[in-house]
Write a structure and sequence with these properties.
Cytochrome Bc1 Complex, Chain D, domain 2, two-stranded antiparallel sheet, 364 residues, 2 domains, globular, mainly alpha, single chain
Length: 364
Amino acid sequence: MNSQHRSLIIVIIAFITCITILQSCKTDNNEVATTTPYLLNTNGNLPQPLLPADNPLTEEGVQLGRMLFYENALSRDGSQACASCHLQATAFVDSLKLSIGVQGLEGRRNSMPLFNLAWHNKGFFWDGRAKTLREQALLPIQDELEMDETLDKVINKLTAKNNYLDQFELAFGDATITEERIGLAIEQFMISLVSADAKYDKWKKEQATFTESELRGYQLFFTESNPQAIESGADCFHCHGGDLFTNAHLMNNGLDTDAEFTDLGLYEVTGLDSDKAKFKVPSLRNVALTPPYMHDGRFETLTQVLNHYNSGAKESSTLDPNMHAIIENGLQLSEQDMADIINFLHTLTDETYLNNPAYSNPFE
C-alpha cells in the first residue's frame, strides 16, 4: 500500500471518528433534557397513593405546575392566580365565605383546601364534576366567576414568556405549550401538596404527647355515638376516619330539608334525584385554619359545626344513612365534649406543610 492510499484511509477513519463523536454529543444533549423523578414524601404516615400512570411526577413538571399555580397571566386581567383563592398560610384556602373572581363577582361555593389530593378518587370540586386534577385545574381559568380567561389566550401569554418556554421544554422535552400540558403540570404540583406531619402524626409515632383534653377529643372523635352506652362518642370517624380524615365521598350531611335546597351539588353533575344536596367530604387536616365551613361557608367556627351535628341536622330525602340516627336526639355532646374535640382537631394542623418552601410562590 502506497503512502497516498494510507493517507486516504487515515482521512476516512478520521471522518468516521468525527461523525461518531458528533452523534455521541447529540445523544448526550438529548440526555440532558431527561426529567428527574419526583419522590412524594408522606412521612411514613400515609399509604402510598395510586398516582396517574400517564403523568409521572417529575421535579421539572412539579416546578412548572408550581409556576402556573402562582401565575396571574392565567386570569383575564392578570390580577389573579390559582393561589389568589388558595393561600398556603391557611391550608390553601382564602378564608372567605365565597371567593371573589376577576370581575368582582362572588363564586358559588367556598374555596376548598388543597392537600393530599393524590388519595382522592371520587372527583374534585364540591360537586365532584372533575374526575381528574388535570381537568379540575383548567376549569377555574375559564369560569367567568373566577379567572374568566380562555385557554387560547393563556397559551399565547405563556408563549411570550421565555421562562415558560424553558420550563415546558424541561418538563415535556420541547417548548410547545398546550392546554393538555398546562393541566398535567398543575396536576403534578397539586399532587405534590402533602400534609402528614401534624402533632397527630408525631403522636402516632410516639414523638409527641397529647394533653388530657386532646386525648379525650381523639377518643370522642373515633367512638360511635350511642347515648344509651356508658361511652358515647361523636361518630366523626364514619366520614372523616383514617389518617386522611376523609372518605372522599360526596354525601348529604343534613344541612337543609328538601324544601330548603338551593344548591343541588352532585345532582347538577349526574341529574339523579338521589344525588341532590350531596357534596364532597373535605379532609379535617388543618381544619382549624380553614373557616368558614361547609360548601357555602355558612358556619364561621368549629363550635358551630359541632352544634350542627349535635342538635341541628335536618332530615331530607338524600340524607346520608349515618346521619339518620342523630336527627331525633342529636349526639348529646356536652360543652366540654365539644371543647375536647376541637382541641383534638387543632392537633391536625401541620406547620411543616404550611411553611414548606417547595409549595410557596416561586416568583417571590
